[in-house]
Amino acid sequence: MDTLRRLRAVFDPAQFRESGHDLVDQLADYLAAALAGRTPVLPFTDPGAQLAATPMFGEEPGSHVKEVAEDLLRRGFHLHHPQTMGHQDGLPVPAAALAGLLVSLMNNDPSVFETGPAVVPIELRVLRWLSDEIGLPQEAGGVLTNGGSLGNLTALLAARQARAGFDLWSRGQSGGEDLCVLVSEQAHYCVARAVRIMGWGDAGIVQVPVDARMRLDPSALPAALAEARARGRRPIAVVGSACTTATGSYDPLEALADFAREADLWFHVDAAHGGSVVLSPRYRERAAGLERADSIVWDCHKMMMMPAVLTAVLFRDGRRSYETFRQEATYLFEERPDEEWYNPGNRTVECTRPASAVLLYTALRVHGVGVFREYVTRCFEVARMLAARVEAAEDFELAMPPDANIVCFRHRRDGPPGDGLHERVRSAILGSGRYYLTSVELAGKNWLRCTLQNPFTDEPEIEGLLETVRAAVRQAQEAGDS
Ligand SMILES: Cc1ncc(COP(=O)(O)O)c(C=O)c1O
């Protein structure tokens, strides 16, 4: 009896209502403060201190949701702050966060229609819309999965099944030819990781050189293909990046598509970051040729203002995705997986999944598509704003004009890799709590790297950034001299 009373208290609707209202009030205040830049960007403390400050829990009730939220909001990293410009994490729209609450409580699993009667159709609607935005044909289809890394693995598994030349899913790799993929040396590491997960080792990746703008050089593809064959590997796919992680460079997708057709390869595009460009009428040309890909990965948690993680894996021919994971499971699936368009579990590594589609669907229904188009365009424009300021300043150097919303630049007095100045400068900036930015090494030099993902970043934040970098370089040098 006691047990049931305790469990009923856990599920008490009145308590839920009260804590929920408190939480929404806290989040609304937080949002206002972060958007206005009244919070620090992040608390730059060492991991041990953060761990020590994180309370444990006991056998008995101890806290309220409100206290946990207060703690998290105070000690967290603030993506809505307009001086956050580091990695590619998106700033979620509040409507998606509310939808997150909704799907968490309902917990409807979209792996099969029976457990997700409302959320499976929503996922299918979202996938249809994403495919249409790219310009894929009507027979396109796919699935939502958890993150670009898993998405790229899912797509490459499909490529493998389609092009291995034998039923690798059933027979296994033994007895078949050694396979490989061609991919730019600037591709995200998860592509190489996926290849290694598939068991092809180091030789499963054939790196293709890039040009000065870090875009895959298509003239190098025939040599890469020949080299792979000479080493006894059969290339089955060419992988493009749209865009790359380090510099936001778009590979020449039309040229890659032509090459893939001529060489009879699967054409996969990792558009995790830059796929959203197709929403922007002004910039969508950057990804021209994306619609020719056999498979595409598109992360909505990067450039679509969605919380992590929400990744679409799309196939030109949607039937391909069923072949990848042909699985007998009479307790879950029906007889003919290709006819079970309403059971997405046939098309992904995962079984149970969160109903993430609802987050994007809610945001699109509430706000309409138009504002998402404006958002992408705006972020690309903010990147141009920063690049123009850097180019105009004598003491800064721009790595390259940005293709997307990622800008790499350096102070001319910054030292070479390994001299420590660069990291001291970045640590000083992060330590000030004023800006969050990352760094990358390119062509033998250190660069500061900004992803302009917050549409509210504007002239004052850009000017302030360059001033902050100047001051940090001065201080680091003075400290080094003394
Ligand atoms: C181009 C690209 N592909 C894949 C990934 C991996 O995506 P996720 O972090 O969602 O696994 C990233 C992440 O930064 C990326 O930039």
Provide structural commentary:
With 482 residues, this protein is an alpha/beta fold. The strands form 2 sheets. It has a 7-stranded mixed sheet, sandwiched between helices. It has a 4-stranded antiparallel sheet with strand order 8-9-11-10. Strand 2, helix 9 and strand 3 form a beta-alpha-beta unit. It is globular, with a radius of gyration of 24 Å. The chain starts with a helix and ends with a helix. The model has no long low-confidence stretch (mean pLDDT 94). The protein binds pyridoxal-5'-phosphate (PLP). The site of pyridoxal-5'-phosphate (PLP) has 14 residues, from helix 7.
Summarize this entry quickly.
Helix content is 43%, strand content 12%. By secondary structure, the protein is of the alpha/beta class. Strand 8 and strand 9 (406-411) form a beta hairpin.
